Amino acid sequence: MAIFDIQLPASIARALRLPQNNPRRQQLRVLKKLLRKARFTQFGQKYRFDEILMAKDPGKRFQELVPTYNYNKIYEEWWHQTLEGKPGVCWPKKIKYYALSSGTSEAASKYIPITNDLLRGNKMVMIKQLFSLRNYTDIPVKSIGKGWLTLGGSTELEKGPGYYAGDLSGITARKAPFWFQPFYKPGKKIARQRDWNKKLEEIVAKAPEWDIGFIVGVPAWIQMCMEMIIEKYNLKTIHDIWPNLAFFVHGGVSFEPYKKGFEKLLGKPIIYIETYLASEGFIAYQDRPHAKGMRLVTSEHIFLEFVPFDHINFDADGNMIDSPNALMIHEVEEGKDYALLISTTAGAWRYLIGDTIRFTDKERCEIVITGRTKHFLSLVGEHLSVDNMNKAVQMVGEELNISIPEYTVVGEPYDSFFCHHWYVACDDAVDPKLLCTKIDEKLKQLNDDYAVERKSALKEVFLDVLPEDRFMGFMHAKGKVGGQHKFPRVLKGKMLEDWKKFLKGELV
Predict the structure, then answer these.
(1) Per the confidence metrics, is the pTM higher than 0.85?
(2) Does some domain include residue 321?
(3) Do 368 and 398 sit in the same domain of this protein?
(4) Cα separation, 26 vs 456, whole angstroms
(5) Which residues contact 155 (CB under 8 A, 6 or more apart)?
(6) What's 40's DSSP letter?
(7) Is the pLDDT of residue 6 over 50?
(8) Cβ atoms within 10 A of the Cβ of 67, count?
(9) What domain range includes position 404?
């Protein structure tokens, strides 16, 4: 059964045929839809949504009247009331579902409101992405109608006082359309499994029964799953058991550091498609082959703003100032890094999601994720981004013909100056000193500020090579095991303290 044979509801079919529109006009339409829906909420009344809707330029008036928020601020001022069962706080009606998200650095779980309106918008984007696969002419159509292996968190939800909380995949599974079920693997029973190791064991046991056409998930955990299947059944590649596997839909982290090791598990090339699906909403997806970036979702359920990621709008620790210079989509420039603010159909308003992005094609609204607002290193003005690190690791991996699936970097005092300390996962034979020198050289080529500071206050670079399972072991010790968790590329604060304890054997 080919997926394109499915008859979709008329409303969805009409939406899929909508012509491309002016992104600014689309975004203003989305903003007005959000404001009208939330005008009678506590939030809408306080920040005069009616007045914004009547303004000549509602986008600018919205920015003038509504403050920006990070998670802690919006939770303390507003969202905590919804957990107490109050309806109409930031979005109409009572919030019945929350996505639990800890990000890559926070210790406590975040409760992100999930509404039917948000899930409906996410579903529309998913369907649009599915239909965009017709642009990928070099993959067999038959693979699209095969099984879809989605490796996410547990679909079992925790019941709270009047609400359910859990992984976004669990909430989405409850709302999945009936036609999705025949394709969905590993199936409801395995997907509910909370123990990640048991879930992987059950997937490995079932693998010969499935005909998988594409896989969806975070690269590290998908790679681990495939390695277990290959070892269990004494295979040469994953294509020996899943010959129709044609593409991998990934997100959450840059795929480049994983690509070399990942492709060792394949018997033939597959297509890689990047998505940007956060707990707060489906933000972007790659809709054409060989695109440098993902297309932002501008016409559905999220209003986007872009704060230049610089010393004017952010302090040295990556904290945004109270009144940043926020731009709308028609005001951005290609090649510059921006922190993303979103307003959504779940009651997030001018919410700092924590990611930084860069426009690769403004006309197409295509972006790449360059890092996190707090995951960068600038001890002495080196302004080293995760994007710089990923590219350096990729280049060195290709040059030395080694796989580096994980790494993290720490900024530390050194004598009376500073140094960077790299911890790199590599199971191939490699000289740590050579690897350190090569990465340092690549970073100097990629980042002029880094090159300058390496001659002055950034006195030294150190590098330790560790087995990959050490990184996985740390995530297990932190309780961050599973499809939604990614190893932080820069370690600071409590996570750094715990990492050092773990390496000394004091944290298990």
Answers:
(1) no
(2) yes
(3) no
(4) 48
(5) 166, 167, 169, 170, 173, 174, 188, 191, 192
(6) T
(7) no
(8) 13
(9) 386-503
